[in-house]
């Protein structure tokens, strides 16, 4: 439908195609913002509810039986484990992002090294280098998105 509007030669309905394409873009942006802010609001609400329940339990039971010191030690231990897991996750996430950023560069670097050292009689001149860099630039986005696609596919298969 969108393509038929845009490919129309008489320009009679061309503006409708552009309006439709623009509305797709606006819809995607609005949906992203709605989902993003909904997730933030749900997370905030869940944290408030959990802290309210914990404080109610703390006030009623823990203080009543004077278990404050033993619960404080248990909570501190659990919190330290949680911080350790979070720290480990952040390091893994940082290495993942670094790897995603380095893969296109490393592919072009290794290709040039292989071309220079293993191809006898071939010289790397400006024409070959810039052509190869242009082709590698075209491959940058697919190389960047492939690991994310695999990750999303695994997440879909798990859920």
From TrEMBL:
Protein localization: Endomembrane system
Domain of life: Eukaryota
InterPro entries: ABC1_TM_dom, ABC1_TM_sf, ABC_transporter_C-like
ABC transmembrane type-1 domain location: 60-155
Membrane topology: Multi-pass membrane protein
Keywords: ATP-binding, Membrane, Nucleotide-binding, Repeat, Transmembrane, Transmembrane helix, Transport
Transmembrane segments: 18-37, 96-118
Protein name listed in UniProt: ABC transmembrane type-1 domain-containing protein
The organism of origin for this protein: Tegillarca granosa
Taxonomic classification: Eukaryota, Metazoa, Spiralia, Lophotrochozoa, Mollusca
């Amino acid at each position: 439908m969108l393509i038929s509007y845009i490919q129309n030669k008489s320009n009679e309905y061309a503006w409708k195609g552009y309006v439709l394409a623009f509305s797709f873009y606006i819809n995607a942006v609005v949906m992203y913002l709605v989902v993003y802010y909904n997730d933030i609001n749900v997370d905030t609400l869940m944290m408030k509810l959990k802290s309210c329940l914990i404080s109610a339990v703390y006030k009623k039971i823990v203080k009543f039986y004077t278990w404050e010191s033993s619960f404080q030690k248990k909570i501190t231990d659990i919190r330290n484990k949680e911080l350790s897991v979070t720290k480990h996750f952040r390091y893994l996430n940082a290495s993942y992002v670094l790897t995603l950023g380095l893969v296109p560069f490393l592919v072009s670097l290794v290709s040039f090294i292989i071309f220079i050292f293993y191809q006898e009689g071939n010289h790397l001149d400006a024409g070959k280098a810039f052509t190869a860099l242009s082709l590698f630039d075209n491959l940058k986005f697919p190389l960047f998105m492939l690991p994310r696609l695999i990750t999303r596919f695994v997440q879909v298969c798990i859920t």
